[in-house]
Amino acid sequence: MPINATQKITLKLVIAAVGMFVFAVFLMPPLYDVFCEITGIGGKTKGQYEGTVATVDAQRQVKIQFVATNNGAMPWEFAPVDYQVRVHPGEKTSVEFHARNPTSRDMVAQAIPNISPDNAAEFFHKTECFCFNQQPLKAGEETKMGLVFIVDPELPASVNTITLSYTLFDVTEATAAEVATIN
Amino acid sequence: MVSRVKQLVVYTLSPLLLLFSVGQQAYAEDAHASGWSLLNMPQGVTGVSNDIYDLHMTVIWICVWISVVVYGVMFYSMFAHRKSKGYKAANFHESTTVELLWTILPVVILVWVAFPSTKSLIELYDTSEADIDIKVTGYQWKWQYEYLGEGVEFMSELTTSESSIYNEAPKTEYYLSEVNEPLVLPIGKKIRFLLTAKDVIHAWWVPDLGVKRDAVPGFINETWTKIDEPGVYRGFCAELCGKGHAFMPVVVHAVTEGEYQKWLADKKAAAAAEREMAKQTFTLEQLMVKGEAAYNRSCAACHMANGEGIPGAFPGLKGSAIALGPVDKHLDAVVNGVSGTAMQAFGGQLSEVDLAAIITYERNAWGNDVGDMVQPLDVLKFKQGQ
Amino acid sequence: MAHGPAKGVGRWLFATNHKDIGTMYLWFSFAMFILGGSFAMIIRAELFAPGMQLVKPEFFNQMTTMHGLVMVFGAIMPAFVGLANWMIPLQIGAPDMALPRMNNLSFWILPFGFALLASTLFMEGGAPNFGWTFYAPLSTTYAPDTVNFFIFGVHIIGASSIMGAINIIATVLNLRAPGMTMMKLPLFVWTWLITAFLLVAVMPVLAGAVTMMLMDINFGTSFFDAAGGGDPVLFQHIFWFFGHPEVYIIILPAFGVVSAIIPAFSRKPLFGYSSMVYATSAIAFLSFIVWAHHMFTTGMPIAGELYFMYATMLIAVPTGVKVFNWIATMFQGSMSFETPMLFAIAFVILFTFGGFTGLMLAVAPADIQYHDSYFVVGHFHYVMVAGAVFSMTAAVYYWLPKWCGKMYDETMGKVQFWVAFIGFNIAFIPQHFLGLAGMPRRYADYALQFTDWNMVSSIGAFMYGAAQLMFLYNVVRTIVAGEPTSVEKTWEGAEGLEWTLPTPAPFHTFSTPPTVK
User: Fold this and answer.
1) Is residue C128 predicted with pLDDT exceeding 60?
2) Can you tell me the distance from the alpha carbon of C291 to that of C289, in angstroms, rounded to the nearest whole number?
3) N or C: which end of chain B has fewer CB within 10 A?
């Protein structure tokens, strides 16, 4: 069936509109994530660090601060054991966070890391972190959660303090739903 | 009545009058401008706020000069080139020279503005070498301040009473900009703020410090200030965060280093005393008095001062199953919050004494008459594993 | 062949005639304007004095949200679509819109979209209360249950806008009369063509944003929820990627209207026609690359802040060109000041003022102080109301005689203009002072130092509200009892194909295309 000029332009525009919708829902979020990872926008940290850092810059010391926040109605006790450590870039350091579930029900938490300043995010490597996995705690149970990290010696000279923030979310219900679907 | 009418006339005419009298002398003795003299941005008490003010005035003056030219030409033509005066229209409709000129000239002006703007922005972003780190957490609807490494943290909540907001009691001088505990900061020190939020996005704004930064849940933002002069500086939450958005002010007390150290020591001592007090036993009357005050500060925003809540949004406590039911359930709801709802876990926010008082109050106020009470020690025991 | 309109309600329900659909759009948008305006009156009445008098804070938030949504999506956008429906075929010499049945559909789904949105006011939990910008997580995790109605409503409204835009593009590209080359198009057609492309590009992004919200709320995804690795700030990026072009969607057709009216009453051709076209295109292009200037306080890295600051400042250049062109058009004209011209001149004055405050807001360090304060509220009402609404009012007075063959009462038009102009300024100038002094926007109640200017602002707002009732009266009176006119060219200096038609414009026009020399 031959189509006239009006139908042709209409078709093109409808395709363009659908394309923009697809762009918004399916491309913008992953693109944003990639963009954040490259530039450190938003201070999102990377996943597990697999590489190695050969040299330790003993001349330089960087302050690493830890802050902990409970999101919403999350009732756990959650805090870094030490709020601050001083490290040399390149040095492997391990710290701990304390968590306790004071309620009478079993719960699962997910810690979300974030770094400030933004331009430090790509130079902060975590080799082990409790935030890689969900943390279940039974009623009344407490635990020490570990974090092992290396600050890259390439860290910009202007940065002398890095703050690593963890926000603890209650994911008990979401996890239960997931388990239910799997079973 | 007559004075009311007069007032109205003044109000109606004043914009015109004020446009021609840009002055803040009228309220010179008042550090914070108010009423009619509120016309411009405060210059503030930090390097950054002064830079911002200068930039702001520069751009304003550029705009004023451009508008003198643009509006000048326009009003001149409106006056001189009108048909009623018999003016015959010219017929030109383009001029490459003129059009190029008014494209290039604005670019030059913009570049001129861009330089100081860039410089200020770089300064504003330089959070390095801070003396004090303070974590600021936005809650619905209050602020929490934590002095990192000092073990000092507290909630800063509005103290203006609900009756004052609903016009049943008179409004005092600092209506809606007064809090139970201000943020105390030393002057002359670089203070780094780390901002995050517990629920929705908030924004921490103090105009006199030239600081405004969003507090985003799950994320940490930083900014800084260095205050030049002691004083009380008030600000607000600047990101819509729900119904209490207008009711979570910021109050900063800037003091000398000596006063700051003394305040910090007092604060620590008070915290110790608070822990000591948790071991005491109180009478029902004492708990009810303390409970009412603490309830109105921390709970009334949602559950309302009359305990009736807001239907469809926040449950009432008057006659509710929780308030009239077993103490354990009540303790659990208040201390650990209720997941999946807006009910926060207050265990970490309030002292044992306040928690005990609030629960006792909720069980015995507004016609609730359970008659039992909860002692601070009960709360402590509950917190430490039932 | 000339058959007239169908009789009865069927004429409107099954309308495919561009004039009928245009008329329905115009009336619908005016109804929404009154609805959104009454929300504004509630807001200003509550803010007349400190303390909560009329409403509770949670209802106040519903009012600010609904005011924004209804005015942007219900009043201004459909008003310009209505105007486009009426005027574009007349201005390019086309017999009708290119897709008349889709035209019917795109109008008739609108009332349903808004009924859905407004019905939430009567539901438990209330209407949307998270601001017209609906930032997550306030609009997702912390939203009332009625948010799903809001999302569905936005989808419908968005679909309507996209269909309207496709129709306009198809009409302008395919149905121009012989000899009506692109560079001869009246500027109103040009600005609408560019606007329509913006709509096709960004309305789907808005649909995408609300779809992601819907999935976060109901299907456990976490686009905007940090708990699942999402990011609330991503919402703001997506929203403003839509939202900034949206601002120009609202203002560009207004530029077109003013570019028609000013030459008509200056009795002199528009100055710099081609530079107007290029400037409009440049503004449209820039609108896609400046969105994050709405987010200067979110903690973007400094490189991002600097980029968005420079890019935003650039918008001042093409916008300046337009203003200079209008003034050069007036310069050495032979001006007269009938009501449309008064509104058009007020547009230039006030829009320019809004442009100045826009330039101030572009300066990122200073925006730290301005952001989310009443200064911003003042700024965008200068561009939205004095920009879009004033030009829309000018357009109605300008083309009303052509539409209905009756002349409006000039004195009453002028009275309405002065009440609107004075009321508007009394309402919004003080808001700049309030913002600079530290009053945040969307506040249900305020500290005592803000009392005086809020009171003034409220008085101005009531005055401006009254002016709209006068406008309604003027229009209805013209239609019912206006002086009949059959002069083809109502305005001595007016140019364009629409003025070659009989007055009132017959039901079918340009069935035989005119020839443009």
Assistant:
1) yes
2) 6
3) N
State the helix-helix crossing angle for C18-46 and C100-119, rounded to 10 degrees.
Answer: 20
Helix (H, G, I), strand (E, B) or coil at B194: strand
Q: Considering CB atoms only, which of A116, A159, A167 is closest to B217?
A: A167
Residue B99, helix vs strand vs coil:
helix
Q: How far apart are CA A146 and CA B269, in angstroms?
A: 32
pLDDT-derived band at B31 (thresholds 50, 70, 90) equals: very low
Quick check: C77 and C36 in contact, CB under 8 A? no
Q: Which two tokens stand for residue C316?
A: 């001042």
- Placement of tokens 């008329």 in the chain: C23
Whether residue A143 contacts residue A78, with contact meaning beta carbons closer than 8 Å, is answered with no
- 3-class secondary structure, C176: coil
| pLDDT 10s digits, C189-217 | 999 999 999 999 999 999 999 999 999 99
Binary contact (B332, A104; C-beta < 8 A): yes
Q: How many residues does chain B have?
A: 386
- Note the pLDDT tens digit of each residue in C399-457: 999 999 999 999 999 999 999 999 999 999 999 999 999 999 999 999 999 999 999 99
User: Is the CB of A171 inside 8 Å of chain B's CB atoms?
Assistant: no
Buried b (16+ CB within 10 A) or exposed e, A116-130: bbbbbbbbbbbbebb
> CB of C361 within 8 A of CB of C296?
no
Cα–Cα distance, C99 to C76 (Å, whole number): 22
Distance from C-alpha of B180 to C-alpha of C15, rounded to nearest angstrom: 64
d(C-alpha B200, C-alpha B202), whole Å: 6
How far is Cα C16 from Cα C203, in angstroms, rounded to an integer? Answer: 24
Sheet holding A124-129, edge to edge: A77-80, A92-100, A142-151, A124-129
Token pair listed for C149: 């109605």
| Chain C contact partners (≥3 CB pairs within 8 A) | A, B
